[in-house]
Amino acid sequence: MLTLVYAFNFIDRQILVILQEPIKIEMGLSDTQLGLLSGFTFAVIYVTAGIPIAYWADRGNRRNIVAIALAVWSGMTALSGFVQNYVQLLLARLGVGLGEAGGSPPAHSMISDYFPPEKRATALSLYTSGIYIGILVGLAFGGILAESFGWRKTFMIVGVPGVILAGLLLLTVREPLRGRWENAKANTDRPSFKQTMFVLRQRRSFWYFAMGCALTSFISYGNGNFFPSFLYRNHGMSIADIGLVLSLVAGVSGAIGTIAGGILADKLTVRDHRWYAWLPIVGGLIAFFPYFYVLIGANTTGILIVLFFVGIANSLYLGPSIAVSHAMVPSRMRALTSAVLFFILNMIGLGLGPFLTGLNSDLLASVSGENNLRHAMLITACMGPVAMYMFYKASQHVTRDIDANTAS
Description:
Layout: H1 2-27, H2 31-57, H3 62-79, H4 86-100, H5 104-114, H6 117-128, H7 130-149, H8 151-172, H9 184-188, H10 193-202, H11 204-224, H12 227-234, H13 239-268, H14 275-296, H15 300-314, H16 318-327, H17 334-368, H18 372-381, H19 384-395, H20 398-407
Helix pairs in contact: 1-3, 1-4, 1-7, 1-8, 2-4, 2-17, 3-4, 3-5, 3-8, 5-17, 6-13, 6-16, 7-8, 7-13, 11-16, 11-17, 11-19, 13-14, 13-15, 13-16, 14-15, 14-16, 14-18, 14-19, 17-18
């Protein structure tokens, strides 16, 4: 159920990506405005609200918080179909971001109480695969719905089922015993925000993992949010075809990579905790050079095939990174730890990625012509080695940080 909720999270988030070309045409928007709409402004409210909601989740009923959040973001998605101008659409997307802020941190905390430490990376990766289920469904049906009913009705059709799912979540999911796999003291302590941040400041690898995730997602959000536009403008594909093809390529490959990352992390980190960081490095190295072919290749079928395998490699990082973050802190700090991780990830990845890609696209229009978006996406892709370096730095401290939490 939590994975299904996360899928709805990304259906409602990504539906804008497949609809942005008809929205751009109707409202006369620039690529910078599209980047702000799908990236920075959404990310600001998402991460700002995420921290106090996560603090609440470390004290309250996490299932209820997730259900409320789901109802809010789904309702605001439906309302997006009624907007009349850019500002109204921006406000509606801010509402979606506010709701989605209450989704993952409480869910992460619940999953870490459902599963013992040696199975958490797999469990959290299965949950994280909801991203790609959402991308698959959102892109595939979003394109078809957009061409059949227009972008306004598509928002409405996509938003309403999430409100219904919120009620089903309350009826079918139980709140797990908090800290069931840890000592009894962890079950009763209620650390303050200051105490949680004090612990995180002692965990050097956490901050490197956060930056590695942020820079990896800078590429995936920065270019992923514009990939439908890239295929539309540079490869002449229709919106319906783009939605169907990208849903299969990005959705399936991302789910495979995410689940594989969790399974491999659970198996490999039994021998060496540094595999939490080494797995994202391996994925980044495999994906880096082939990704440039995806952006410069002329054969549409060829680039989509390569993109499938790049997607698998580039998705190995998130499940292990969430799992290792939870391994560093007591159970009552997990929701807030996830929120801090996602604050950094989304401010840099979701916030700056699409915005800077869109801004570079507009700035390059006078010199690159119809290839302005392609060249902007190539610039964004160059962040890959920096992300890998951050994971390398995390590998130097991760064993000590996990041991420090176990000792406490």
